[in-house]
Amino acid sequence: MKKDKLYVLLILILGNTLGSCVKDKLDIKPDKTQVVPTTLTDFQALLDNTVTVFGSNYIGAAQISSGEYALSYTDFQSLSFLPEINSYTWQKDIWQGTASVIEWDSNYKSVFYANVVLDGLSKVTVSASNQADYNNVKGQALFQRANAFYNVAQQFAKAYNSSTAATDFGIPLRLSSDLNEKSVRSTVEQTYRQIMVDLNEALSLLPVTSVSKYRPNKCSAYAEMARIYLAMGNYNQALNNADASLKLYGTLLDYNTLNPNPATAYPIPDLNNEVILRYAMSSYQSFSKTVGKIDQSLYQSYQSNDLRKTTFFYLNTDGSVGFRGSYRKSSVPFSGLATDEQYLIRAEGYARKGMTNEAMSDLNALLTARFKTGTFIPLTAVSSDNALLQILAERKKELIFRGLRWTDLKRLNQESRFAVILTRSLNGTVYTLPPNDARYVFPIPDYIISATGMQQNLR
């Protein structure tokens, strides 16, 4: 039975998890021992699959391409995975016929799971006794679908630009678990509109608090919207949503309480007090602290009393610097939502609005929690533009290896004063990525184009 391969591939990945209700769709003999999800408990169990579905943001290729680290030629030669090699050197076709692209497949796998839940909820009888649970489950599913759409958009669509968004290529917006539904590529405007529709409905349904930092709540929804509005360049809405998120939960982690001993592999606790919602990033070989080397000029930009210098980084035996500051306490980078990001979003929103004092107050509140006790001298700004420059500099330092730099480059490259030319050198060959280059949009994998007939990015 000919199906849209976008979803066929996902079902092959899903295996037996969803049981006969999915297998029947593929004309595969169903395993009658599997349970078809029908109850709120079933749907919550699907959403709690944070190991293989909802616990990760699949944006590894964007992290590789973002220029936050460099490889020696020897380490580069040791890479074996084509997409990693090509992402690092900004090739036009980074996939080169790869049979399965995790940045595409796994994000749409999350979309599929969310849609299974949302479609299933339409058959659940709602009563006064289960209304709260129903709302919570539906809100989580909408949030996860929006988050997956956003991950895809950061990699496979242009940066949001209000003057071209209505015609720029966006992503397929799968809003049903029906495998017969054809995948159609939307515009960037339609993509972001759908993301915000999902998040706004999720916000109205989610509880203020959740039983776990693996489950989204209202604070998560506000924080996610703040992140996305920032990517869109809608700084007033970014400010408003970051403010709403911080009013619900604004705790900062005092780095003076951490142990930056070099013998400690990962000094920042998992699920620490700053974490709003826990996500991991899809990981690659070059993310290793002994392989991916942090730029020395960036490393030296941290003052001696700035505890991030010893907490975030690891000095290799050859004198190079590796990153160890993941909020997941592991080699897999944290890419979730945390309060430090929200302080920086609100600060940038204030600065762009001309509210210099408020902007610097947020920035100083964050940095106070980063410096050795009693050593931090509050920063000052002579203008809102000066405040903005300082905030963006600290954003780059604070949010390193969070999977955010690629999106920051895409949005800031639209402002000539912040545009950056990325460069990398390997064995005498210099690779460059100019601002607003077509390579900031990854090509949709060939197997998806051939199966769906969608139009590829114009390059």
Major beta sheet summary: 2 strands, parallel
Could you please say which CATH topology applies here? Serine Threonine Protein Phosphatase 5, Tetratricopeptide repeat
> How do the strands line up in the largest sheet?
1-5
Question: How many whole angstroms does the radius of gyration measure?
Answer: 22 Å
Strand content is: 5-15%
Q: Judging by the overall fold, what is the CATH architecture?
A: Alpha Horseshoe
Described by the principal axes of the CA atoms, the overall outline is globular
CATH class: Mainly Alpha
Give the helix proportion (percent range).
40-55%
Order of helices and strands: HHHEHHHHHEEHHHEEHHEEEHHHHEEH
Number of helices: 18
Unreliable stretches covering 5 or more consecutive residues: 5-34
